[in-house]
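User: quick one
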Amino acid sequence: MENTPTPPKKRILVVEDDQFLRDLYEEILATAGFLVEKAVDGEDGYEMMKKGGYDLVLLDIMLPKMDGISILRKFHNEGPGLAPNKAVVILSNLGQESIIGEAINLGARGYMIKSDMTPEQALSEIRRYLSESF
Amino acid sequence: MDDSQKAIQQANETLYKQNFELSVKNQTLSILRRLYDVSLTTADVTSTSQKIADAIVQELGFAVVMISLLDKNTKCLRPVAVSDSPEIREAMTKMGKTLDEINIPSDYENNLCITCIRNKSRQMTTNLLDILDPAVTQEVADEVGNIANIKTIIIYPLILGDEPIGVINVGLAKKVDDLSRAEKETLEQLIGLVTLAVDRAKLYQDLKEANIRLKQLDQLKDEFISVTSHELRAPMTAIKSYTWLVLNSKEGVLEPKAREHLDKVYQSTERLIHLVNEMLDVSRIESGRVQLHPESFDMRQLAETVKDEFAAKASEQGTELEVTSFGEVPLVIADREKVHQILENLVSNAIKFTQSGKITIHISQADQFVETAVTDTGEGISEDDQKKLFVKFGRLENSLIARSGTGSGLGLYICKQYVELHHGRIWFVSEAGKGSTFTFNLPLS
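Assistant: Done. Structure below.
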């Protein structure tokens, strides 16, 4: 976990309403050498994603104010897609295939179920997504 | 007039009378047929009653027909339909009330409709107020009667079994005595059919409403499950992940006892997560929402992956785990993730029941199928328990799995459902004390 990626550090946005999980992903990712920013609800997340510049956005589905699917749909409808960010990956505890399918159709790169992964597995998945987006 | 002329006249009269009765019988047949058709068409109570009222007025030439039903909730007799004609429309305008506003409390004794229901017997009146009281005044009732040309009203109870469900009011433009015997008979015959048609419509409506409620409940259940899964999984993820971080921390060394305890916390959380996942799987299976995403893959490779996952656990308890195959095995086309889950489940069961010994995952081709067999040298399954294997929650009474309290009893049920969704089959051979083999097959294409 301590092998730091070569600079400049990759920027990751975590859109997560559960404080403990937000802290968890921040800790795991920061320890692994990434620059981590956090959004606590859907509106917050949408605004930060709009400004863009993230190498990866980890987006929850069930969020206060605006859900993850709505965020993806907004970007999808607004035209440039997810261009300001290199990749969006769903990080959620919802496992419904219909929702996963919808997220992928709206441009999400992948889907991770939080409870099914250890921190190590989550990190290696995230690294994989980061390497794929170049 | 001589005798022969008299006889001819008499014969003519008889013939005329018979002709008239025949025409009424024809009308009867025609209206009965129409009512029968109405009763067969599934529709709600209001439109069925409307069709009945209109049919009777059109076929038999009465002034008006009104059908009212007892509403158990409001304890009122409520008109649901009145036959449609220009006169009736004018009369309704004069009355200044809609049908809905002519509710009669079922304990209002001045209304003849209520008497009709109480006594379960036909009533008759020449005063329209008798069936509209207390909704209108005598003056309005008289005016309405004049506009609609109603001289007599006959009120028939609609009785189903022994239970009155409402009344049908028939308004005539003539006196009761002017009704022929045949017309009276026709009316009597109608009532039974009207009752059946209305009752059928009521049942249909109830069913429809129940169906809507069930669908709402089903949706509520789905929402409940998805919310629950989300809400349960969030804290479980936190417990699992933070425990993992402590157990795998490079800073400082955990006291052996503390490590042991934390390890148990971690395993318990994993079990809890597994249980929630299985419940979600079952809920998806039962609501038919499972989607398969078939791809072609090498079953042997998948078996090796599963072997690697369980290698540590197996060696920990001194169980040997191996993958073997017979000859060249073609690729299968299936949902890799689901098949992975099936195999994980079978191997995990085998490990639970094989404290030391050997577990073999064997892959082979059999006709148009690829067979995967998981054989263990464990304790085997008694005949009694074998029956419960693929049953939901069918936990085994005489096995470790029940004694130690792990496992939801959903695993094999899910396996069976997933295998069958792939048009495959799952079966087992077992002998108590010697071990078991669980096999499933997947079609090649």
